[in-house]
Amino acid sequence: MTFAGAAAIVRAVTDATPILEEIRRAYAAVGITLDSPATYGTYYRLLCAGCGRMVGNVGDRLLPGMAQDLVAGQFDLYAAGLLGCGCGHQRERARALDATRASAARARYGG
Amino acid sequence: MTNPPEEMRVIEDAEQRGRTDLWPFWRRAYALGDPLPSLACTVSRPEHRFDEGDRLPDEYRDLLLKMLRHEGERAGNKSFLGLMATCLDLGEALFPAPAKVLKAEYLAEELKHAIMFHRIAVGLQHDFALRDVPYAHYAFHLPRETWADDAFFHFFVDLNGAFHSRDWRESSYVPLRKMAATVERDELGHSEMGYYFLQEIVSDARGRALAQALLPKWYAAALDMFGRSDSPNTPRFIQWGLKSVGNAEIRAAYKGYVDRKLAALGLDLPDARAGRRFL
Question: What is the interface pTM, i.e. ipTM, of the complex?
């Protein structure tokens, strides 16, 4: 087996972990995609689902429930443009998810 | 005082040439006096002292390896290099231009630590030198989606390293004791770099709002990094001279330090029990 083949299997196994799925789902809700493992399978780039630009990174050892809580807790920051890509995709996504709350967040934080 | 080996003089020379008004951040912090609290052992315990090449008691070796696995800054640890790669990614993608070079200095200094801990690993157990040990604590895996996240990461997580290194000044393992002061100083400097970034960030209203909103995530993780207060291993670490104080004591000292610094930034302190996973 080639190293590349072995790496693909490792990646597939890693990708299947419940925590990674939870992270993927949590970020998908606000328009952010989990990229392939950045280095050695432990850390992942976060990419804007609108334009593909890197907007951060995350590791795969979060505790159960943590990714969902963190992303949900940051809703207002995405809505106000304090987090997320400069292209505005997460901001728009927040507005689509909950227009009233997004509007209140923008009023609170500006932007 | 003996002269350092030639290769270390080259590293020292490289560090000297990297000095600016800001870098290394530890210089200003220590110029004002010892920035860290003392961590003195208050329980009665036997005197131990082991050097490289000494035969180590099995339990001592196990605990020392456990501690070094947790520490992670080792040239042969792929997961450490992976963590450093994430720092490069963030520096490139999210940092304002003037901060990028500071981040690069930080990375250079962490790689110096990786060489230092590599030497300890080789001297302790050859097959440990190339062992990959992913960071187990969730604090190393929290999402970093903005410069402010990364500033908190350095302020809190590198400071945790400084506190542990302070404790190693009294370590019964001589190689660790010898490098403790350097690692402590550097890690404190990395924390001060994060703090400097935070000072920049909170200097405008939106930045301050962002920092205040992100603080609970990092504050809880930072306090959790010291582990459970009732960890059954702690008395064994203390008895062997690998630690001086328990998790609750070092956490309390750390909390006092960070609370003062956060208050000086004008940030409201989160509830110290909110979001905690390891009390």
Answer: 0.92
